[in-house]
Amino acid sequence: MANSEACASALELFNSITTQGEHVRALKARNASKDEIDSAVKMLLSLKMSYKAAMGEDYKADCPPGNPAPGINHGPEATEAEEDFVDPWTVQTSSAKGIDYDKLIVRFGSSKIDKELINRIERATGQRPHHFLRRGIFFSHRLGSNSYHDSNCKEVSTYIKGDISFLPPCFFRWLQDVFNVPLVIQMTDDEKYLWKDLTLDQAYGYAVENAKDIIACGFDINKTFIFSDLDYMGMSPGFYKNVVKIQKHVTFNQVKGIFGFTDSDSIGKISFPAIQAAPSFSNSFPQIFGDRTDIQCLIPCAIDQDPYFRMTRDVAPKIGYPKPALLHSTFFPALQGAQTKMSASDPNSSIFLTDTAKQIKTKVNKHAFSGGRDTIEEHRQFGGNCDVDVSFMYLTFFLEDDDKLEQIRKDYSSGAMLTGELKKTLIEVLQPLIAEHQARRKEVTDEIVKEFMTPRKLSFDFQ
Amino acid sequence: MANSEACASALELFNSITTQGEHVRALKARNASKDEIDSAVKMLLSLKMSYKAAMGEDYKADCPPGNPAPGINHGPEATEAEEDFVDPWTVQTSSAKGIDYDKLIVRFGSSKIDKELINRIERATGQRPHHFLRRGIFFSHRLGSNSYHDSNCKEVSTYIKGDISFLPPCFFRWLQDVFNVPLVIQMTDDEKYLWKDLTLDQAYGYAVENAKDIIACGFDINKTFIFSDLDYMGMSPGFYKNVVKIQKHVTFNQVKGIFGFTDSDSIGKISFPAIQAAPSFSNSFPQIFGDRTDIQCLIPCAIDQDPYFRMTRDVAPKIGYPKPALLHSTFFPALQGAQTKMSASDPNSSIFLTDTAKQIKTKVNKHAFSGGRDTIEEHRQFGGNCDVDVSFMYLTFFLEDDDKLEQIRKDYSSGAMLTGELKKTLIEVLQPLIAEHQARRKEVTDEIVKEFMTPRKLSFDFQ
């Protein structure tokens, strides 16, 4: 017991150093003042000294206490991976393969979704795991003590909270189906308003347009509630109460450490993490769950959103609520390469749901970063590189057929398949997907949106 | 023009120094760390140096730029008055007469309610000014460009926002009557929850009890809306939107300067000033005012609440709303003397609405600080001191008859009236006041409270 406590506190120190390191990088990234950076670096060094004093050895970024020897790579690559920067607003890496997700798991202190867990989920649900799970697109989790992977998973009182901005929604639909649980989708239009140069009406307008896209993905209206923060705060007897509860238990020091806020940030930004966190607790939705606080929330999100929910999981026991469980996905890569995540503000950075067949073709052909060789001859001889080829990465998201995908991987790697052919395959997968989506979206009337966004009872099975 | 701009910027600097000085005092008052205090003092000194460089002379606390020579008192008393400390949570002075309110007007940059303004209000309303105005209990204002004191005041689109905790509500009733406007009463139960060791339910419970006392004062239900923040946030389509708007336009640096928050404060406290501010804008109450944003808010409050509304007035033009107008009152003194304001948590610090006739008698006799002499002989010879006598101060609040009050002042000052007799007079004024209040409060049913706290249309005259 004493030993495991010592471990926990060493781990806490380790995590503080990690967080402080991220903070320093964030300061540098935004060209903060020398004073600010110096003082953050001083704090970092002092934490590292405490760590050495406690552990008898230097802090190593990829070697948390109680986790001996990740071994293999302590050389230049370790240093390079340390350059990855991930927070809710910025994702950057210098590697064309994208972020080193295994290192992120270590740094964030989450757990890997391994083959065994996927098998257990398959046994528990009786369903073939979604290809996002099979292919490691969801690669990390914080499932803690809940039992999604136990045989009684259907009886777990759970709801799913989604923030769908950068994730293909099919995975949410799959989860909702196999667990048969309610799904609440938070649209943080207040965040958009606080961070961007928008009016409230514009921010809300975007949320409604977003809702149409979500609805067009075919969610069951009896099990799905979509809400805008700006709208729902004034309709829910429970939401604001949870916001205040969370806000009471998080200090500015904490959000400064987690999100890199500074004294010049607006008090709106500073207090926003509590708004993001509150829907993780079921009594934020009294219309759905009454005053029950024991229903656990499962949050599938891109890994860059993890800081919000690390904070939420810290706060939960302090205010008597269960910790939300998390499933982390990789980033949907930008067409230009996996160094950054796609950006909604750059029309060429990704395929959008509004794109025409022609735009899709042009974008893929023109902008999708290729892992092919410089000449056809070289390509035929040495083969292409699927690890950095964005068209191939997109296929892992959108092509459900495992055999076909594997065949493409082999053919492209061997040089049998040329870049033009790979891109053509992707275009032929995307064009009907997007066209069907657009057709379904046209059917989504304002009345249907209103219905989805009206607080009401949802149907669910558990007690 | 250039000249007045220079003045404005010197005044800004002056105000920054004042604010920073208050911040230093706040840090000292709460025994902040040496580092924190040192860094705040350093900032203060640097501001003072900038001021001297800009103005060619030293910063003097009671001599703002463009306001030549308050003259009379630059000696020890000026220093003493500088020791007054006033913010929303702490009011302290070393003088038994209480805070030097004239100095506060200079320091806060508000305006004095003088005889001329009172006469204009009398002419405009056709009503005798309330004794709180006649006697200088409301002593300061920020009425700006509105026209409460013009002949057309009845046509001004105004509502009154009250935070009644430490002010006898009769003044609000008088204002509501003479201007015939809606009154909204904000009960900041979220603030109580954030600052104190209470549950949400407890904080809300106190708010409801508080509402009963307010209702018992006889407010017109057709013109009065009472709301708890915790409750109303989830019922108003407009409140949260205004909160976010305000939060976007206020930085942590600003609330740090105004309220003395530190990095260790909860993000709830840090963002709370926006909650306090939002009801100053009429579209926070769509049930009452629709989406109108042009209706001006008049806020009578104790002067220690001014920082919230200085902030609100700063933000208002940035978000396209009219600035709220303010009337500032002195503090209701503690029985023990005017050095501090009364505290709800110390039962002997004031007369409470729940006190029995006997408790009133005992408290006044035992705890009310006396301005009388040590012996009857001395008292008869030299007279008592009304300026420090708390019983006399209470009479200025509760005895409406000016002639009678003046007679008491004369008799006590001359020594014709003894302290026991003065206290007896106060007891005889308070006992029926409180007893009547208690009788009326008993009539306030839960249904009536619910009605007052239900968002709904209110009646008003203006266009």
From TrEMBL, chains A, B:
<keyword id="KW-0037">Angiogenesis</keyword>
<keyword id="KW-0067">ATP-binding</keyword>
<protein>
    <recommendedName>
        <fullName>Tryptophan--tRNA ligase, cytoplasmic</fullName>
        <ecNumber>6.1.1.2</ecNumber>
    </recommendedName>
</protein>
<dbReference type="GO" id="GO:0001525">
    <property type="term" value="P:angiogenesis"/>
</dbReference>
<comment type="similarity">
    <text>Belongs to the class-I aminoacyl-tRNA synthetase family.</text>
</comment>
<dbReference type="InterPro" id="IPR000738">
    <property type="entry name" value="WHEP-TRS_dom"/>
</dbReference>
<keyword id="KW-0648">Protein biosynthesis</keyword>
<dbReference type="InterPro" id="IPR002306">
    <property type="entry name" value="Trp-tRNA-ligase"/>
</dbReference>
<dbReference type="Pfam" id="PF00579">
    <property type="entry name" value="tRNA-synt_1b"/>
</dbReference>
<dbReference type="GO" id="GO:0004830">
    <property type="term" value="F:tryptophan-tRNA ligase activity"/>
</dbReference>
<feature type="domain" description="WHEP-TRS">
    <location>
        <begin position="9"/>
        <end position="65"/>
    </location>
</feature>
<dbReference type="GO" id="GO:0006436">
    <property type="term" value="P:tryptophanyl-tRNA aminoacylation"/>
</dbReference>
<keyword id="KW-0436">Ligase</keyword>
<dbReference type="GO" id="GO:0005737">
    <property type="term" value="C:cytoplasm"/>
</dbReference>
<keyword id="KW-0030">Aminoacyl-tRNA synthetase</keyword>
<keyword id="KW-0547">Nucleotide-binding</keyword>
<dbReference type="Pfam" id="PF00458">
    <property type="entry name" value="WHEP-TRS"/>
</dbReference>
<keyword id="KW-0597">Phosphoprotein</keyword>
<dbReference type="GO" id="GO:0005524">
    <property type="term" value="F:ATP binding"/>
</dbReference>
<dbReference type="InterPro" id="IPR002305">
    <property type="entry name" value="aa-tRNA-synth_Ic"/>
</dbReference>
<dbReference type="InterPro" id="IPR014729">
    <property type="entry name" value="Rossmann-like_a/b/a_fold"/>
</dbReference>
<dbReference type="InterPro" id="IPR009068">
    <property type="entry name" value="uS15_NS1_RNA-bd_sf"/>
</dbReference>
